[in-house]
Amino acid sequence: MRAALVQGALALALVAGASPAHALFGDDEARKAILDLRGRVQEYQDTTEQRLAKIEAQLADLTSRLSNTQLDNQAQVDQLRQEISKLRGQVEVQAHELAVTQRQLRDQLATVDNRIKRFEPVDVEIDGNKATVDQSEKKAFEAALALFRGGDFKSALTAFSQFQSQYPDSAYAPAVYFWIGSSQFALKDYKAAIASHQALVSRFPQNPRVPDALLNMGYAQAESGDRAGARRTLQSIVDKHPQSPAAQLARDRIASLGR
Known about the structure:
Layout: H1 2-17, H2 27-68, H3 74-117, E1 122-126, E2 129-133, H4 135-149, H5 153-166, H6 173-186, H7 190-203, H8 210-223, H9 227-240, H10 245-257
Antiparallel strand pairs: 1-2
């Protein structure tokens, strides 16, 4: 009994001490560990309840004997009463130990559950599409975006580039290309901005950010002196995405470029 509890405590210590939790094991293994611990709780409860039932049966038998048997020997009566008192004490001790152990293990299991939930994937909506991402992934993207919106384009570029390296297959990938290109544009690195936006258009041609990426490409081409290239890029928005908000901006920019 005590060995089972010690093993359970060690398992809990391993889970609780992991930093982060998924560094120790994956989601499936973590859930398996929790199920195992819950099984230990149930096993301990079942075993203890069996012991309680046995003690209570003995108690009932002694009480029945005391009530129904004519005992002339006072010593026998006293002995039975002592045994009944002892068994009642054992029942109380066992019941208390069970309640305490159950409460402790429930608290520990709740802690493990909460730790694992902190690392479970979450559902998000990205550019109108639903996706499932890691919580750390979501936080990293949002932190990088906050830097850009705060006007710290250099730090935003670094953060988005690091995100791209750490999560190469992320559902955020099209958005990351867009914000990298936008950061580069803001820093006046037009050549790099064109390459980043072109990567988005080439790799994710159906993504809703494509018109805006083409618009930024056209602007970057114009700023770098490639007016003919800018006109072609901007015209492609008008031709292929005429209903997009970027289309009207493209028309205006084409008009300003002249011939």
